[in-house]
């Protein structure tokens, strides 16, 4: 019997971590077998011999099985390289970027009229020449900073989460550097025929021309635009063609002008406006901030911005509250800078769309923003907890007589200092000139979209298109539910 048990163990095939799935787990034939039942007439054998002869080999076999299982579970099953080698048929179908490697972006070499040509047209429309021009300062400069970033040498882009590639076959994403926000305001007031034989600039024609050019590109057609990135920071940028580019990643200031099936927090990226007033350079504190609440801007706006006039009526007679009507101008910016730098809180009501540059003016002024905009979306909210730098008040509460001012007067000086300290920590996210500012963060946000883009590309190729009775959002839409007050 002992010799028989030894032969059983000797003949059993070895288990190795690289064997097939059928041999990597014990089968009934390879497991140690219990002894066969004995005949009651077999009395010549010592009763304890079978038990003694099986115990040691059984323990050895169990130990070997447990050792193999532990080795397989630790070094094989959880090893990504092994999984890749066993699933190479997936990689042959689609290129999945391995993280933490940089996301590879191909920037289209657009016809000049879509980039520098827009700047030239802007300058000419204001009496300037076509030489020695520069991108004009405005509150929607992200298109210029992103373009400038990608044309820099790669060794000057240290720490960027994306890298520019010049072979489209290597690209994960495709960037369209059309200066859409500047194109929108090329004509100073309204389109008009220029003197002589100069051509009238038409933003709508530029949008149509861009899409015609883009739809001829093989990489646009390959994935139906899902892997393309569009910059349209002004809420009205690309308004005529947005429905034709809605599959792509849209870089926007908010979703105020987008339909439910066009903009989404899942696929798109919210950008900060550029602040238009100077950053506060003094120390934190409340002693030099004599005003409780400050606002300067257009009193009369459309849509959600109608709340401004109602707030004016409630606040303009309150003590320690400075609320002024004013259009954009150099003098207005000077007055706004002084007001924000000397106030504890700065009002941010909704305008024609939920967001505005005023919010970021307040942050760099260390003036605690008071946000009265129920459907606002905010940039980089995975990196910034806005409850630590701003006060949020729902519109209904803000319009109750006395509510807003009483609430702000109850905030202690220590709490205001906490707000200011947090604003100091995060204000670089809103400084476009900062090398670690919004440009780098925008690219990080874009890079995070890549897994979803791959999902949507594959999903899009298997779905049947249907005509819906109303637009549908198949993923998480923008804020349609309002806000919580945080004081």
Key attributes of the depicted protein:
487 residues; 18 helices; 35% helix; single chain; alpha/beta; 6-stranded parallel sheet; 5-stranded parallel sheet; disordered N terminus
Could you walk me through the main structural features you see in this protein, from its secondary elements to its overall organization?
The protein has 487 residues and is an alpha/beta fold. The chain has helices spanning 2-11, 49-76, 80-86, 88-91, 116-125, 142-150, 180-184, 203-214, 218-222, 242-245, 307-315, 330-341, 358-364, 395-398, 403-409, 413-426, 438-448, 450-460, and strands at residues 103-107, 162-164, 173-176, 228-231, 249-252, 269-270, 291-297, 321-325, 343-349, 368-372, 391-392. Strands 2-1-3-4-5-6 form a six-stranded parallel sheet. A five-stranded parallel sheet has the order 8-7-9-10-11, sandwiched between helices. Helix 1 (2-11) runs parallel beside helix 2 (49-76). The chain is globular and about 80 Å long. The model is unreliable at 1-52, 74-100 and 191-196 (pLDDT under 50).
Secondary-structure map:
Elements lengths: L1 H10 L37 H28 L3 H7 L1 H4 L11 E5 L8 H10 L16 H9 L11 E3 L8 E4 L3 H5 L18 H12 L3 H5 L5 E4 L10 H4 L3 E4 L16 E2 L20 E7 L9 H9 L5 E5 L4 H12 L1 E7 L8 H7 L3 E5 L18 E2 L2 H4 L4 H7 L3 H14 L11 H11 L1 H11 L27
Parallel strand pairs: 1-2, 1-3, 3-4, 4-5, 5-6, 7-8, 7-9, 9-10, 10-11
């Amino acid at each position: 019997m002992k010799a028989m048990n030894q032969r059983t163990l000797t003949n059993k095939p070895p288990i190795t971590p690289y064997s097939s799935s059928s041999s990597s787990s014990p089968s009934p034939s390879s497991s140690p077998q219990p002894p066969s039942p004995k005949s009651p007439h077999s009395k010549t054998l010592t009763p304890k011999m079978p038990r003694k002869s099986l115990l040691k080999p059984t323990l050895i076999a169990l130990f070997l099985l447990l050792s193999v299982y532990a080795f397989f579970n630790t070094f094989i099953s959880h090893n990504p390289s092994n999984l890749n080698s066993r699933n190479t048929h997936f990689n042959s179908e689609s290129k999945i970027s391995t993280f933490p490697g940089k996301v590879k972006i191909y920037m289209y070499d657009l016809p000049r009229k879509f980039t520098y040509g827009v700047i030239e047209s802007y300058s000419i429309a204001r009496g300037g020449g076509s030489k020695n021009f520069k991108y004009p300062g405005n509150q929607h400069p992200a298109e210029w900073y992103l373009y400038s970033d990608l044309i820099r040498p790669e060794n000057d882009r240290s720490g960027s989460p994306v890298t520019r590639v010049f072979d489209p076959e290597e690209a994960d994403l495709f960037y369209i550097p059309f200066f859409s926000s500047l194109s929108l305001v090329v004509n100073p007031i309204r389109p008009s025929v220029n003197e002589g034989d100069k051509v009238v600039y038409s933003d709508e024609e530029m949008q149509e021309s861009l899409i015609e050019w883009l739809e001829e590109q093989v990489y646009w057609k390959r994935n139906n635009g899902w892997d393309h990135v569009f910059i349209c920071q002004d809420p009205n940028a690309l308004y005529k063609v947005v429905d034709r580019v809605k599959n792509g990643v849209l870089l926007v200031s908010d979703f105020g002008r987008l339909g439910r099936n066009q903009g989404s927090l899942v696929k798109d990226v919210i950008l900060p406006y550029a602040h238009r007033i100077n950053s506060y350079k003094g120390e934190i504190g409340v002693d030099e901030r004599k005003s409780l609440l400050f606002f300067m801007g257009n009193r009369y706006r459309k849509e959600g911005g109608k709340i401004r006039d109602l707030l004016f009526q409630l606040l303009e007679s309150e003590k320690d509250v400075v609320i002024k009507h004013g259009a954009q101008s150099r003098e207005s910016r000077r007055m706004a800078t002084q007001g924000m730098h000397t106030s504890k809180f700065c009002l941010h009501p909704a305008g024609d769309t939920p967001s505005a540059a005023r919010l970021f003016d307040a942050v760099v002024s260390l003036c605690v923003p008071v946000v009265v905009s129920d459907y606002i979306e905010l940039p980089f909210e995975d990196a910034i907890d806005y409850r630590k730098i701003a006060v949020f008040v729902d519109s209904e509460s803000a319009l109750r007589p006395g509510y807003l001012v009483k609430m702000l007067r109850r905030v202690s000086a220590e709490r205001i200092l906490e707000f200011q300290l947090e604003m100091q920590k995060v204000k670089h996210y809103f400084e476009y000139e900062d090398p670690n500012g919004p440009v780098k963060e925008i690219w990080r946000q874009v890079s995070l979209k890549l897994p979803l883009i791959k999902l949507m590309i594959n999903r899009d190729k298997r779905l049947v298109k249907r005509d819906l009775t109303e637009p549908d959002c198949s993923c998480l839409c923008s804020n349609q539910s309002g806000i919580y007050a945080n004081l």
